Amino acid sequence: MLAPNPPRRTFAGKAALWGGALAVVAIYLFATRPAPLADGQAAGRTVPIERVFRILAAENDAARALWTADMVGAGGKIGLKFHEKWRDADVQAGPLPALFLRESATAVQKSKVPLGLFLGSDYPISQSNRFTGAQAEHFQRVRATGNPEFFLATDIGRYTAMFPDYAVTAGCVSCHNEHPQSPKTDWKLKDMMGATTWSYPKGSVTLEEAMQIVASLRSGFATAYDGYLAKVRTFDKVPEIGERWPREGYYVPTREAFLREFERRASPATVDRLLNVFDEPAPTN
Question: Cβ–Cβ contacts within 10 Å for residue 163, how many?
Fold first, then answer.
């Protein structure tokens, strides 16, 4: 049973909390060596993991949109390739959007933060990505409503969230429709192809833990982009790596430029959500 909402803070109370928390939010999201949470009032409060999952989903949406439109979409117009088998030595290409997410998820799983990230479907190319059991039931509700699902997966003992994942590029559609192992070959743009699924072992976390989780995801995005740059440097025709983007010609941004643009798009909303988690209505799921 959910606890009643805490009383609304006065402006002075919020200012005292935000003053300490804002500095720590900035440290966690933009630095590589976070410091402990100093503000005692913030440190003593906990955040439902559902709220953290929503922040992660929004961060992922921002990264996915940036990679899809500004790298895959714009890059395809100037001769850059993106392919399912991008890791193969004889394939001069980068990862498709779903594979960029997979690279990020793999990096997160290697970190000390126990965050799970999985892209599943009811029509996956790889059977290891098929939803089964209770997860399949929850995904059917996601498919029917278009809304995320939040639940405790008792078989693995982890709090879980599913957010719908849609076909956002022609490459996503053609890859699945033309793949010899695909169980479905009539995908169209904007179809719901599966769900981005997050999991965590605790139902609530401190503000400091919430920021560590978000920072871990961002680190995963950085690692995935590093992998792409490493592959780019093996191309027969290596694009110029610098401050310019594919929309400007045969260029790809540096790691720093890519992350700077991601932060510009994602950080204002993420910081706002982190600073207001204690004043939002309690989840009803």
Answer: 20
